[in-house]
C-alpha cells in the first residue's frame, strides 16, 4: 500500500499494528512509516508530530536519530532557528555515530548565527 502511494491505507495498517503491539521491536519503524505517509501527503506538521513522538517513546531505536533530524528540518521550515539549532545539536551529541549526525552538522553550518 505504502509503495503504491495509498498513504491513508498504509497509515491505517501501521496504526493498527501499533495499537495491537505498542511495544514491539517494530513499533518505531511503524511510526517512521506513519510519518512518511504524512510527508507523502504534504502534511509536514502531522509528520513532525509523529517524529517527535517516536523520539520521545523510543529514543534508543535506530529510527530516532533520523526522526530527530527531520524534526530539526521542520523547525527550520517554520523559521524557528534557535529551536532547530538545539534539536540538530542533540542529533550530533546524542547520536554521534548515526547517519543523521553528519547531516545535522552540515545543516548547523548553514544556520544563521544566533
Count of DSSP strands: 0
Count of helical stretches? 6
The CATH topology is what? Answer: Serine Threonine Protein Phosphatase 5, Tetratricopeptide repeat
How big a fraction of the residues is strand? Answer: under 5%
**Which structural class do you get from the secondary structure elements?**
mainly alpha
Q: Mind telling me the C-alpha Rg?
A: 14 Å
Task: Note the overall shape.
Answer: globular
CATH superfamily: Tetratricopeptide repeat domain
What's the N-to-C terminus distance? 44 Å
Mean pLDDT: 94
Low-confidence stretches: none
Q: Would you give an account of this structure?
A:
With 114 residues, the chain is mostly helical. It has a single domain, classed as Alpha Horseshoe (Serine Threonine Protein Phosphatase 5, Tetratricopeptide repeat). The chain has helices at residues 7-20, 27-40, 44-57, 64-77, 81-94, 100-110. The longest helix is centred in the first third of the chain and has 14 residues, at 7-20. It starts with 6 loop residues before the first helix and ends with a helix.
Q: What's the helix and strand layout?
A:
Layout: H1 7-20, H2 27-40, H3 44-57, H4 64-77, H5 81-94, H6 100-110
Helix pairs in contact: 1-2, 2-3, 3-4, 4-5, 4-6, 5-6
Amino acid at each position: 500500500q505504502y509503495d503504491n502511494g495509498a498513504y491513508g491505507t498504509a497509515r491505517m495498517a501501521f496504526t493498527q499494528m501499533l495499537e495491537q503491539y505498542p511495544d514491539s521491536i517494530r513499533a518505531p519503524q511503524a511510526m517512521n512509516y506513519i510519518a512518511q505517509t504524512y510527508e507523502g501527503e504534504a502534511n509536514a506538521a502531522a509528520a513532525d508530530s509523529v517524529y517527535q513522538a517516536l523520539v520521545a517513546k523510543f529514543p534508543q531505536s535506530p529510527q530516532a536519530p533520523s526522526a530527530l533530524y527531520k524534526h530539526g528540518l521542520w523547525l527550520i521550515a517554520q523559521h524557528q532557528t534557535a529551536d532547530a539549532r538545539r534539536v540538530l545539536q542533540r542529533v550530533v551529541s546524542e547520536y554521534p555515530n548515526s547517519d543523521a549526525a553528519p547531516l545535522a552538522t552540515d545543516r548547523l553550518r548553514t544556520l544563521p548565527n544566533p
